[in-house]
Write a structure and sequence with these properties.
This protein has one domain: NAD(P)-binding Rossmann-like Domain (Rossmann fold), CATH 3.40.50.720. It is of the alpha/beta class. The strands form four sheets. A seven-stranded parallel beta sheet has the order 3-2-1-4-5-7-11, with helices on both faces. A two-stranded parallel ribbon has the order 6-13. The relative contact order is 0.15. The mean pLDDT is 94.
């Protein structure tokens, strides 16, 4: 079976490629940068290039689509829509024209988040009327398109909702959280520390994609379904990073800011951010204080994976100690590279 991983050089995509390759699958990568192992075929292009995308899809049996543009802006961003929704629609259409049998879409826990508490959430949660950021809206629209395509032109589809990924090759979460600590020695906690957040080790999420690729057919239980994928028990968002700081022997002081204060500050900073012009061909960078960042860390925001266990046979492949050790090893490499380049 030949499997195309769109975004196969990214954090999650590369983990999926490693596991597929280890399982003996014939793997092809579509990404803007080459996969680091030259033995893996890479088609280098952009998901907005529909011709290149269809060429890469031709001749494969399975497509795993992991690419997304992420930002916490609340404004509709044409480029984000083009990447998250338009490119996904191009993937669906190309799969149908090329006779691909299965499409696994990497969705997000944000598709059901509107800023209210989610405790032990499951797939019965509806899409909200409004999301806290435009990213959640675009991922919802793309997921709907993927699920609606199930059974059309022989294509079986499913959606895996992941979130709060951590592990090797993380350039979005750990660096954003830890860099200010390295720079100032201050670790800022939002809220009172009671809210729980669900993190997911990237290789466990990759394993769920592998299971879906192995099992998805039009007559399977997972066809046309959505699944939350996570692994270990939820913890407070800010507590999660403290053992890593301690293991790295980083000197820091914890400062806590009450929920009401940061919520008010987020309204101001988001208002100011929304007044700044955004070029049509760009996406605002994530980071900084936003309403999404406040609500996602100061409220309960975690899910179970019971449906994935029932239908996919999913259980975390790597336990917490392995996930911690591998993440810590990667962080040491990241810190060394940061020091070398400074």
């Amino acid at each position: 079976m030949t499997t195309l991983v769109i975004g196969g050089s990214g954090m999650l995509g590369s983990a999926i490629v490693r596991q597929l390759n280890g399982a003996g699958a014939d793997v092809r990568v579509f990404d803007r940068i080459a996969y680091p192992d030259p033995r893996i075929e890479t088609r280098i292009s952009d998901v907005l290039d529909a011709v290149a995308l269809e060429s890469a899809i031709a001749g494969v049996e399975t497509v795993i689509h992991t690419v997304a543009a992420v930002s916490q802006t609340t404004r509709p961003i044409p480029m984000m829509y083009a990447i998250n929704v338009g490119a996904t629609e191009s993937v669906i259409a190309a799969c149908q024209r090329q006779g691909v049998g299965r499409l696994i879409y990497t969705s997000s826990i944000d598709v059901v988040f509107d800023g209210t508490d989610i405790t032990d959430g499951d797939e019965s949660l509806p899409y909200p009327a409004h999301h806290l950021d435009y990213y959640g809206t675009t991922k919802m629209l793309a997921e709907r398109a993927v699920i609606a395509a199930n059974g059309v032109s022989g294509l079986a589809t499913c959606s895996l909702r992941v979130g709060a990924l951590y592990g090797e090759n993380d350039h979005n979460r750990f660096p954003v959280v830890l860099q200010p600590v390295f720079d100032t020695g201050i670790y800022t906690r939002l809220g009172d520390g009671t809210a729980k957040h669900g993190f997911a080790f990237v290789d466990n999420c990759a394993y769920a994609h592998l299971l879906a690729a192995q099992q998805l057919t039009l007559d399977s239980a997972i066809a046309g379904e959505c699944y939350f994928i996570n692994d270990h028990p939820p913890v407070n968002f800010f507590d999660f990073f403290l053992p890593y700081l301690d293991a790295l022997a980083v000197a820091y002081q914890v400062r806590s800011t009450p929920y009401g204060v940061v919520k008010a500050l987020a309204r101001v900073t988001q208002f100011m951010a929304n007044r700044r012009p955004i070029p049509a061909d760009s996406i605002p960078a994530s980071g900084g204080l936003s309403r999404y960042a406040v609500e996602a860390t100061c409220r309960d925001f975690w899910f179970n994976h019971r449906k994935a266990t029932r239908d996919l046979g999913y259980a975390p492949l790597f336990d917490q100690s392995v996930a911690f050790d591998r993440t810590l090893a990667w962080l040491r490499t990241w810190i060394a590279a940061r020091a070398e380049n400074s």
